[in-house]
Structures are given as structure tokens and as C-alpha cells.
Design a protein that fits this description.
alpha+beta, Immunoglobulin-like, Jelly Rolls, 30% strand, transmembrane helix
């Protein structure tokens, strides 16, 4: 009886793990888990690190998702399961296990001592001929029966994502609506939204309306998906009056904390908050935390021809801060410029996005984005006709380019891991000389 009870408990554990793996697969692409290659696991490792700050190697992920065949089923430790749950929008693994959701059918192979795919090389020729005939008939029937469905998918471009209240301040409950030029013949459940705030999982439409809660100022570009394919992009624009400051703890996908600070920018004094300011606002300063400074307002500065420069100093080594991270985000009308600076020994975590051009330190040599600013320095980003130059202490360290315009600049975010400060922010249009 005891063995049966233990088996039932283990079955429940693995059932939840399988569901979590399938939800992750649904979030990051259309391929079945059984079809994943090594590059898919590398991509998932990168996305997990970027979103949760926890790095799981591709070999660990292969064990979790069943790519590696073992005699006994692998069950990851709690910290690993917490990271997987946080990736799909839950607070931790306990929160995921307590969810109220219908368990989907899984397409992943079961882990056992048997091979996942039967070896058909030893099948006789007769079976091969029968299989080929069957596949040929199935292909012909697919062309005949599913041809009308192709037309329906092509018409999905008439479905748009509209935010009924896109402009405001934080906090903000944005109401999204599916707008179609003709009656929808497909289920609403085939449509979902990526909210693009970095803190929330994708949500599925159950009816034409869906509401989302935004907590940090900025300009967001939520994407509408139809059967996992992006078909439209909207926007949500949450402005500030001058610099607004918010704090957040790592892995807390629910709460952010507005921070009140008497420090304002001047020629002599930097913009900064103290650990005491953050603690009083509710931030747990004994854990890894981040402080974001936001100045969000519309401008006539060309997002493809501008220069941003400022002096900064990142956090000294403290609890939860070894890499002294600073993220810079320049919002445009249509897209954004975003990059991260880490200490030289931590460049695996670096990344950048300049419109459609994205790269990550786990897959690329981004050593130029490694610099120690704990004793201060000058950071400059110059964009000339969509050609990007990054300068550190007035020395050019990296260049790249992009194709799609981001339009006019609509705001700026600077985020520090721990306590950081900056001053003398200069953001100007290189042609008109208009200042931010």
C-alpha cells in the first residue's frame, strides 16, 4: 500500500512537471517538444536567464523535457522548478501547483527505458509500401479538405488588436479588444496576447475583451497572436511628470513599489535613491532588487538620429549584486532601443535590442557591453541613420545597425541592480538639436 501511495504522489509530481513543460513550449514557439533540437534548448536557456535571472544549461533542460533518456525519471530541485514556473507567469512552483487550470494534452514523449521513436529500418518492404501509399492518400486528402482553411488563415490579417484606453499613468488597467472586419468563424481561444511588460505571461482570449494591469511607466508593444503566430501589434503608453522611481524584487512578478525620493537632478546632484528609501517603499533590500528611473513623455526627437549621454555609477558589491547591472531603454513610437551593461566577467547576461536587431550574450560575443561602472563613468549611445554606436568614457566600443524605424522618441528608462545613480542626462536630436 505504501508503494502504491508513493507512486501516486510521484505521478502527480511528474504530471505537473509535464504540464509546465508543455506551457513553456506553447509560449516560445509552434514546434512540438519531441521535435526540439539543440538550438531550441539553447534558446530556452537564454530566455529563462533573461526573464528569471536563473540560468539552466541546455543539458539540464534536456533532462527535464525528456530529451535525454534515463532509467529513472528526472525531477528537478525546487529552485529549478520555481524558475520554470516564473517563466510562464507564476510566483513560484507552489503557486503553479495550486493553479486552477485544465491540464492540456501533452505531445512530449514519455520517459522510459524504450526508445522514443521506433526503429523502422527492420520493417519489411510491404509495410513500407503500405505506409507510403497511406501518406500519399493523406496528402491528397489534406490538399482537398484543408484548402478552404488556408483562406481563413490568410484572412486573419483583418483581425486587429485595439487598446480602448492606451494612454495613461501607472498603475493602469489596459482594456484590449479584438476588432474584426467580418464575423469571426474561429474560436477566441486561438487568439492570445503577449503584454510585453516583462512581468506577465501570455493570456488567452475567452471573449473579445481582455484586461491587463501595467505597473511601471513606459511604452509597451503588446503582440496579438493567432495560433502562436504574431498577426498584429498594439501599444500602451504610460507617461510620467519628470522622473518617476519604482523598485522591484527579483522573481516577484506581482508587485512593484513606487519610491519617493527628495533627490532631483541638478548640475551638482545626481538622481538617486538610497537603500533606506527603497526599504521604506516596501522593497526587500536583503534580496536581489532593482530600481527603475522613468521619464516618459512624447518628443519630436528622431529615434533613428539621436545621441543619449549621461554619467552614471552602478551599485557596489552587496547582497544579491555581483555583476552591477544597468539597463537602458529608449522607447520609440513603434519599437525600442534597449541594452544592458554588466561587469566584464558577467557578459554572458548582456543583451541588446535595436528595433528588430536583437542579440544575447549567451550566443554572441558581447564583451564590449562588459564594463565596471562601480566607480563611475560616461555612457553614450549614438544613432545616425539607423547605425548604432556605443561609447564608454567617450571611446567607441561597439557598432551595429537596424532596418525598421522606431519613430519619434517617447521616453527613457534607466534600471539599476541594487543602488545606482546618474546625472547630466543629455538626449538630443542630431539634426534639429531638439533636447529631451
Amino acid at each position: 500500500m505504501k508503494d502504491q501511495s508513493e507512486q501516486a504522489v510521484n505521478s502527480s509530481f511528474f504530471k505537473n512537471l509535464d504540464v509546465c513543460c508543455q506551457m513553456i513550449a506553447d509560449m516560445i514557439g509552434e514546434k512540438r517538444i519531441a521535435e526540439w533540437t539543440n538550438s531550441d534548448y539553447i534558446n530556452l536557456s537564454r530566455q529563462l536567464a533573461r526573464k528569471t535571472k536563473i540560468r539552466l544549461s541546455e543539458s539540464t533542460l534536456k533532462r527535464i523535457f525528456g530529451k535525454f533518456k534515463t532509467s529513472e525519471r528526472y525531477y528537478p530541485q525546487k529552485a529549478t522548478r520555481d524558475a520554470l514556473a516564473q517563466f510562464i507567469g507564476y510566483k513560484d512552483w507552489d503557486d503553479f501547483e495550486n493553479r486552477d487550470a485544465t491540464i492540456p494534452e501533452l505531445d512530449r514523449p514519455k520517459v522510459s527505458n524504450r526508445e522514443y521513436v521506433p526503429d523502422v529500418r527492420n520493417k519489411n518492404r510491404r509495410i513500407w509500401l503500405m505506409s507510403a501509399t497511406f501518406l500519399g492518400l493523406a496528402f491528397i486528402l489534406t490538399l482537398i479538405v484543408l484548402k478552404p482553411l488556408e483562406k481563413k488563415d490568410v484572412k486573419m490579417d483583418v483581425v486587429q488588436l485595439v487598446c480602448l484606453n492606451p494612454n495613461g499613468i501607472t498603475p493602469h488597467s489596459a482594456i484590449f479588444k479584438l476588432v474584426a472586419k467580418q464575423p469571426l468563424t474561429d474560436s477566441f481561444k486561438n487568439f492570445s496576447i503577449d503584454f510585453a511588460d516583462g512581468r506577465s505571461k501570455r493570456k488567452q482570449f475567452l471573449n473579445p475583451l481582455l484586461t491587463h494591469y501595467y505597473q511601471v511607466p513606459g511604452r509597451y508593444y503588446p503582440k496579438l497572436r493567432y495560433r502562436n503566430k504574431v498577426i498584429d501589434t498594439g501599444y500602451v503608453y504610460l507617461q510620467t511628470k519628470g522622473w518617476s522611481i519604482t523598485g522591484a524584487n527579483q522573481f516577484d512578478t506581482v508587485r512593484v513599489y513606487p519610491i519617493q525620493s527628495p533627490v532631483r537632478e541638478s548640475d551638482e546632484q545626481a538622481i538617486a535613491v538610497s537603500a533606506v528609501d527603497a526599504f521604506r517603499a516596501g522593497v526587500d533590500t536583503l534580496r536581489t532588487f532593482f530600481v527603475t528611473f522613468s521619464n516618459i513623455k512624447p518628443t519630436r526627437i528622431n529615434g533613428d538620429n539621436y545621441e543619449l549621454s549621461f554619467q552614471l555609477q552602478t551599485s557596489a558589491n552587496r547582497t544579491g549584486v555581483r555583476c552591477s547591472q544597468v539597463d537602458v531603454n529608449i522607447y520609440g513610437q513603434f519599437d525600442q532601443h534597449l541594452f544592458s551593461i554588466f561587469k566584464p566577467e558577467c557578459t554572458v547576461w548582456t543583451s541588446y535590442q535595436f528595433s528588430e536587431n536583437e542579440k544575447y550574450g549567451e550566443e554572441n560575443d558581447l564583451r564590449p557591453f562588459g564594463h565596471d561602472f562601480t566607480k563611475g563613468g560616461i555612457l553614450t549611445l549614438r544613432v545616425v541613420e539607423k547605425k548604432v554606436s556605443l561609447l564608454i568614457n567617450n571611446k567607441e566600443v561597439y557598432t551595429t545597425n537596424y532596418q525598421k524605424s522606431i519613430g519619434y522618441i517617447m521616453g527613457l528608462n534607466i534600471t539599476f541592480a541594487g543602488i545606482g545613480s546618474f546625472r547630466n542626462v543629455q538626449l538630443r536630436d542630431l539634426k534639429s538639436n531638439e533636447l529631451f
